[in-house]
Amino acid sequence: MPRKNRTRRAVRAGTLGLLALAIVSSAQNNGQREPLCSEDSKSRVEVADANMSILGLAIGHASLKDVQARLGNARTVPVSKEEESDVALCYVSPTDGTVLIFYSGSMAGWVDVTGFALWAREAQYPRASDCLSSKLVSRSLATTGGVRLGLTKEELQRLLGQPTGFGKASIKYQYVCRRKMTDDEIKRFKTVNNWDVASDPYFDVSSTVDVRLIDSQVSRLQISKIESY
Fold first, then answer.
1. How far apart are CA 171 and CA 167, in angstroms?
2. Across the 229 residues of the chain, what is the mean pLDDT of every consecutive 10-residue run?
């Protein structure tokens, strides 16, 4: 099934821990391909894995149940009223009002973590009163790679490099690349989805860091990553 001829289709990829989603982009329609994801820091076209993990809970590996086991049994709530809205688990620091949110959406079957966010008290998360209190949450909380609240724009760029977009009080890193499947992933994909992808064995990887600033410091940040086919 050539990519350019696919219609929108989603099926659970079982032990792959994601949804297989047919995506037809303008780049693909023009015969162009997204760049390959690279571990070389000089040519990286994705957010580093170290910044996809917080409190030992990594995007694409941890589930919402893992989050609840680590931080407490928060209630799962929809992010919006849309039919396929993401769902979220929300935790708040009892000492400094910092909020930590974990997200999951249709691409992960509303089971696995697809993103997380940190809000400082001054950013005023609108549903903080609904969050479960957790002593594991504080303003000093950081990703494994060191991204956290309170960083200056310059400090953030030393960690993440040059942004792909920015505004007066916002910074954004957004990447789309292709990751080659392992032989095992190709086999499992065919077993679960009855779909042989050996002729085009690549996942499309979209990773994002979205930052808002108050007084030139990071007041809230959201990090997400989705792998699709």
1. 6
2. 34 36 36 71 78 96 96 93 87 98 87 96 94 97 97 95 93 92 87 87 92 97 91
